[in-house]
Design goal:
This protein is α/β, with parallel strands linked by helices and 217 residues long. The chain has seven helices and nine strands; from the N terminus they run βαβββαββαβαβααβα. It has a domain of 139 residues: Rossmann fold. The protein is 47% helix and 20% strand. The termini are far apart. The structure holds guanosine-5'-monophosphate.
Length: 217
């Protein structure tokens, strides 16, 4: 038997919540996502499969499961993804079975995925809770993309145009329940943690009321 890799099971297994976090590149969503994961004890981060090349900063199995195009095709054909989408010419997908197992254990399951993927998740699981991280302004986002010094100017402009398109689409679609402005990182992290705690508390109250009603009937 494989050893238990995750924290102790919570007692209320109805407490499982699928948290979807999205936002344009450069907005700080990975930092916020990982901080939410550290702040909420029963949370687990869903490691996506991707066909993009592994960089020196990536750890296999921690940041992504790196796959060849062929391996990814087989996973799509086997219906292994809760959602998958093409982002910047590469494919990224969320492992369905793992997510479902963690939700059944009552955990907070965190997906950091793009808007296309978030829309698919919301269609498949209406009870998913979507959070979109927005920059304080377009000028600030452009400055942050340049400050990362990861890409040359033409790629930065491509990412910036894509970011504007994503923000518009996030506003238009119904995949997101909360929008958090990242003008101050610590505050944005706290806002995200509070949004999740409030939502779980709200659902607990609703479940309790539904149970009482069923008992009264
Ligand atoms: P990066 O390659 O910079 O880590 O991620 C690029 C983009 O892909 C980010 O917007 C990230 O949120 C998105 N992404 C990562 N994993 C998934 C996934 O499993 N599904 C979808 N739809 N998008 C993902």
């Amino acid at each position: 038997m494989t050893p238990e890799r995750y924290p102790r099971l919570p007692t209320d297994t109805d407490d499982g919540l699928l948290l979807v976090i999205s936002g344009p590149s450069g907005v700080g969503k990975t930092t916020i996502t990982r901080a939410v994961e550290r702040s909420i004890p029963d949370s687990v981060f869903s490691v996506s499969a991707t066909t993009r090349a592994k960089t020196d900063a990536d750890v296999e199995g921690v940041d992504y499961h790196f796959k060849t195009e062929c391996q990814f095709d087989a996973m799509v054909a086997g219906d292994e993804f809760l959602e998958w989408a093409g982002v910047f010419g590469k494919r990224y997908g969320t492992p369905r079975a793992w997510v479902q197992e963690q939700l059944q254990r009552g955990r907070l399951v965190i997906l950091e995925i793009d808007v296309e993927g978030a829309k698919q998740v919301k269609r498949a699981m209406a009870e998913a809770f979507g959070v979109f991280i927005v920059p304080p302004s377009e000028e600030e986002l452009l400055r942050r993309l340049r400050d990362r010094k990861r890409e040359d100017e033409s790629l930065i402009e491509k990412r910036f145009a894509e970011a504007r398109r994503e923000i518009e689409e996030a506003n238009r679609c119904d995949a997101y329940d909360a929008f958090i402005v990242n003008d101050d990182l610590e505050r944005a992290i706290q806002d995200a943690v509070n949004a999740v705690r409030d939502e779980r508390a709200r659902r607990r109250v609703a479940r309790g009321a539904a149970r009482r009603e069923a008992g009264d009937a």
